[in-house]
C-alpha cells in the first residue's frame, strides 16, 4: 500500500481513538447509564391497584457511575430524590464491582489517548520496531477494546445480577418497598460499546494498511529457518 494511504489510515485511526477517549470521559460524568421505572409494591398492595391505577405507583430512576436521581411515586405524587454512590450507597451496592468499572473506564481513556498518539506518530513520524510500530498499535487497540468489554460485562452484572436499581430504590426506605418495573441501558453505556467496536476496527485498519499481526510469521522466514536448521 502506498505511504500516503497508510498515513490516511493511521490518521483516521488516531482520530477515532481520540474521539473514544473523549466519549468515555464524557460518559463517566453523566447519569445516563441506566434508565428505568420502579414500582411501589407496598402502596399498590394497600389499595389493590390494577391497570391504570398502577401508574400512580410507578416512579422513575436514572443513574450513572457516581450519582443519579429517582422519582418516588406512592400514590401521592412524585417526590424526587438525588443520591450519590460515594459515600452514601457504598454499603448497599457491590462496591468492588462498581469501583472496578470506574477503574477500567480510566484505563480505557488512558490507552485510547496513548493509541491515538502512537497512531499519529506512525502517520507523520518514523515508526520504531516495538512500541511505536505495528506491534504497539495492536497492543494499545487490544487493551482498549478489552477494557471496554470488561466495563460492559461488569456493569451489566452489577445491574442485572445484583439488582442495582432495586437496591438504589430501596435506599433509606423503611416503610415502603420498591421493585424494578422496567430498566434499560442508556446512552453512556452504549457509548462504551461503540468505543470497543472502534478499537476493534482500528486493529482491522492496521491490518488493512499492510501490517501482519504481531505473532504471525511469513512462510519465507519459516523456509529460511528450516533450511538453516538442515545446514547445521
From TrEMBL:
Its main location: membrane. The gene is Clrn1. One of its GO terms (cellular component) is membrane. It is a multi-pass membrane protein. It is found in: Membrane. This is CLRN1 protein. The keyword Membrane applies. GO terms for biological process: equilibrioception; sensory perception of sound. The chain crosses the membrane at residues 97-123, 135-155, 189-209. Keywords: Membrane, Transmembrane, Transmembrane helix. Belongs to the clarin family. It comes from the Eukaryota.
Amino acid at each position: 500500500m502506498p505511504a500516503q494511504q497508510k498515513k490516511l489510515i493511521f490518521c483516521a485511526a488516531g482520530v477515532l481513538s481520540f474521539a473514544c477517549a473523549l466519549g468515555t470521559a464524557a460518559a463517566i460524568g453523566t447519569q445516563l447509564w441506566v434508565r428505568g421505572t420502579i414500582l411501589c409494591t407496598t402502596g399498590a398492595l394497600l389499595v389493590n391497584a390494577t391497570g391504570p391505577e398502577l401508574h400512580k405507583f410507578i416512579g422513575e430512576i436514572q443513574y450513572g457511575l457516581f450519582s443519579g436521581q429517582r422519582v418516588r411515586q406512592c400514590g401521592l405524587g412524585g417526590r424526587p430524590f438525588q443520591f450519590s454512590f460515594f459515600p452514601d450507597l457504598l454499603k448497599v451496592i457491590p462496591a468492588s464491582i462498581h469501583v472496578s468499572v470506574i477503574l477500567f473506564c480510566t484505563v480505557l481513556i488512558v490507552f485510547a489517548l496513548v493509541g491515538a498518539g502512537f497512531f499519529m506518530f506512525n502517520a507523520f513520524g518514523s515508526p520504531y520496531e516495538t512500541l511505536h510500530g505495528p506491534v504497539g498499535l495492536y497492543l494499545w487497540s487490544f487493551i482498549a477494546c478489552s477494557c471496554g468489554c470488561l466495563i460492559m460485562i461488569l456493569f451489566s452484572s452489577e445491574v442485572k445480577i445484583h439488582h442495582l436499581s432495586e437496591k438504589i430504590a430501596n435506599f433509606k426506605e423503611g416503610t415502603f418497598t420498591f421493585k424494578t418495573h422496567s430498566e434499560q441501558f442508556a446512552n453512556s453505556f452504549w457509548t462504551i460499546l461503540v468505543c470497543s467496536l472502534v478499537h476493534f476496527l482500528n486493529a482491522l485498519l492496521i491490518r488493512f494498511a499492510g501490517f501482519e499481526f504481531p505473532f504471525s510469521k511469513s512462510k519465507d522466514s519459516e523456509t529460511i529457518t528450516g533450511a538453516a536448521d538442515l545446514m547445521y
